[in-house]
Design brief:
The protein is of the alpha/beta class. The protein has a single domain, classed as TIM Barrel (Alpha-Beta Barrel). Helices cover 43% and strands 13% of the residues. The strands form three sheets. It has an eight-stranded parallel sheet. A two-stranded antiparallel ribbon has the order 1-12. Helix 4 (83-94) packs parallel to helix 13 (295-326). GO terms for molecular function: FMN binding; oxidoreductase activity, acting on CH-OH group of donors.
Length: 343
């Protein structure tokens, strides 16, 4: 289904917009490796367990119908006029958290998301203002993305000289929410973001909000352990969907080492390459508490707006329940006890 959706979205979207969403950094080695790594993971089913699947769980204090949350995706209005609002509505129908992107094309106040994503702007006053706005809007957690000190070269966007379409801005950052006329997204982003963020900055943020913090973009177990020591509540194992360091380890391959490093002192989420209910169970068996899903919802949004995104999430839950049943699992906890092999 995901492949069919992607083809339908590709046919509908302008070429430059499709390439921005579908592409990765450099030669796109890591983009391809994310999927190849998932497909190497085989599950070892249990039998005669008497289990009836119920994938409900809690992540970052949020109750949810399955261990899946919507990943932060920038500029969703490029794909459909309703943008962030459409995907947030689909997430509410599905009973899962929606993570609003700092570079989203609707404001925190319009969306009132479950979780809010932060990058590290050079202006710490701006960052603190965004935190306070998220708190007032009722967000229950912050997802701080730390794998983009600079925006990587994305060759498709360079070839296309990609700029944001008219009417699409980073709504939370108005009046600085749009690149100057003719400016590329990478130039605008690199001007806005701080390339010299350190662990001291994380300490600063931790001291200024009581909201749970998930640190997104962690691949090295040493960084995961240090994040837990710094007081984060969850780490998100992610290579930015193959959009940052081309040649970075596939996220699902990094997952077991991160889980071992943090033990049960932190929740662990997986991002990058999740496409199906089978992938969700693979991630759980390798140590994740839950996953983030991004690109499939972009394709669904492009084709069918809220209803399209809601359909993808319903199908994902149906697939997840089927895989749980076929592996003898009733709960997320059962799935985390499954053995795996490499194909």
């Amino acid at each position: 289904m995901t492949d069919e959706l992607a083809e339908a979205a590709k046919a509908r979207l302008p070429r430059a917009v499709w390439d921005f969403a579908a592409g990765g950094a450099g030669a796109e080695r890591t983009l391809a490796a994310n999927r190849a790594a998932f497909d190497r993971v085989a599950l070892v089913p249990r039998v005669l367990t008497g289990s009836v699947p119920d994938p409900a769980t809690r992540l970052l204090g949020t109750g949810m119908t399955m261990p899946v949350a919507v990943a932060p995706v920038a500029y969703l209005r490029m794909y459909h006029p309703d943008g962030d609002l459409a995907v947030a509505a689909a997430a509410r129908r599905a009973g899962i958290p929606f993570t609003a992107a700092m570079l989203g094309s609707h404001t925190i106040e319009e969306i009132r998301p479950d979780w809010f994503q932060l990058y590290w702007p050079r202006d710490r006053g701006l960052m603190l203002d965004l935190v306070r706005r998220a708190e007032r809007a009722g967000c229950s957690a912050l997802m701080v993305t730390v794998d983009m000190p600079v925006m990587a070269r994305r060759d498709r966007d360079v070839r296309n000289r990609f700029t944001l379409p008219d009417g699409v801005t980073a709504a939370n950052l108005v009046p600085d929410g749009r690149a100057r006329e003719g400016s590329t997204v990478v130039a605008h982003t690199n001007t806005l973001f701080d390339p010299a963020v350190s662990w001291a900055d994380l300490d600063w943020l931790r001291s200024r909000t009581a909201l749970p913090i998930a640190l997104k973009g962690v691949l090295d177990p040493r960084d995961a352990a240090r994040a837990v020591a710094a007081g984060v509540d969850a780490v998100v194992v992610s290579n930015h969907g193959g959009r940052q360091l081309d040649g970075a380890v596939p996220a699902v391959d990094a997952l077991p080492g991160v889980r071992e490093a943090v033990g049960e002192h932190s929740q662990v989420l997986l991002d990058s390459g999740v496409r199906s209910g089978l992938d969700v169970v693979r991630a759980l068996a390798l140590g994740a508490d839950g996953v983030l899903i991004g690109r499939p919802l972009v394709w669904a949004l492009s084709v069918g707006g809220t209803d399209g995104a809601a359909h993808v999430l319903r199908s994902l839950r149906d697939e997840l329940c089927e895989v749980l049943a076929l592996t003898g699992c009733g709960t997320v906890g059962d799935a985390r006890e499954l053995a795996t092999a490499r194909m």
